[in-house]
Design goal:
Helices cover about 5% and strands about 50% of the residues. By secondary structure, the chain is mainly beta. Strand 1 and strand 2 form a beta hairpin.
């Protein structure tokens, strides 16, 4: 799987985890030079508190376009069947494909 934004590969891995139709990339598969910490968070009723990154590529910003769960809610890992702690998913114009 590849995550591409602004004609740039942000992440690439054959070890993603699919959750609710989103591909979550292992932390080491994501190019950190394109990530900027964000203070934005959301809460999923069953996965817990999601933290976000803003993508910065070629001088352009994609606010809060990546999210991850640093401490998934109790029972959520069992529900998914795999540990998705700190795995990163994308949205907001990021194209994820094989």
């Amino acid at each position: 799987m590849k995550a591409v934004w602004n004609d740039t590969i942000i992440a690439e891995s054959d070890k993603t985890i699919e959750i609710e139709g989103n591909q979550y990339f292992p932390p080491d598969a994501v190019k950190r030079e394109y990530l900027e910490d964000s203070d934005y968070t959301t809460t999923c009723i069953w996965k817990g508190l999601a933290h976000y990154y803003t993508l910065v590529v070629g001088g352009e910003r994609n606010e809060n376009a990546a999210w991850y769960y640093p401490a998934p809610k109790e029972g959520s890992i069992e529900r998914v069947g795999k540990d998705f702690t700190n795995y990163i998913a994308f949205w907001n114009g990021v194209v994820v494909s094989e």
